[in-house]
Design brief:
Layout lengths: L2 E3 L13 E3 L5 E3 H4 L4 E6 L5 H17 L4 E7 L11 H11 L5 E3 L4 H6 L3 E2 L1 E6 L4 E3 L18 H12 L12 E4 L8
Parallel strand pairs: 4-5, 5-6
Antiparallel strand pairs: 1-10, 2-3, 4-8, 7-10, 8-9
Protein name: Thioredoxin family protein
GO molecular function: antioxidant activity; oxidoreductase activity
InterPro entries: AhpC/TSA, PRX-like1, Thioredoxin-like_sf, Thioredoxin_domain
Length: 189
Amino acid sequence: MARLETPACDFGRPAPDFRLPGVDGQDWTLEDCRGYKGTVVMFICNHCPYVQAILDRIVRDARELEQYEVGSVAIMSNDTEAYPEDGFDKMKALAEEAGFTFPYLYDESQETARLYGAVCTPDFFGFDAELKLQYRGRLDASGRHRADDSSRRELFEAMKRIAQTGQGPEPEAQQPSMGCSIKWRGAAP
């Protein structure tokens, strides 16, 4: 598994729209997922050890961000033929087991991941109320292994700030997320 890091935040970049099927049987658009004061769009998958290490923290932070009117959505864009553990039925099972309170969507064409510029799982995009990018960083100091429970909640703090002020943290305060590469069909995009 190739470990990648996300690029720096491209402040003000608009969130690309999408229409993707969710594990709940509904199709979801960006508008359906957005929060009144901010939106987290995250690219995750079932099998990645980087995601597995923080899955409960993702669920916790998404749930707690709701009180700040920040919506969250998770998108799975991996090639499920090569990685069947990321298949739709297994996505359903994971969302139920982990207690997702946000939509978990399947990007079968991988077009949404390309539009966002997603490079790894997990990859977090934090948008303001106008769906302009304000945060591109990690959840916390966790990597392949879970960070100490006292580690700073970087994504949560950034999104709380965005909800309250409309501005994300300064670029130097945003640490890149790291994880397994998106599993592209055929050649890389």
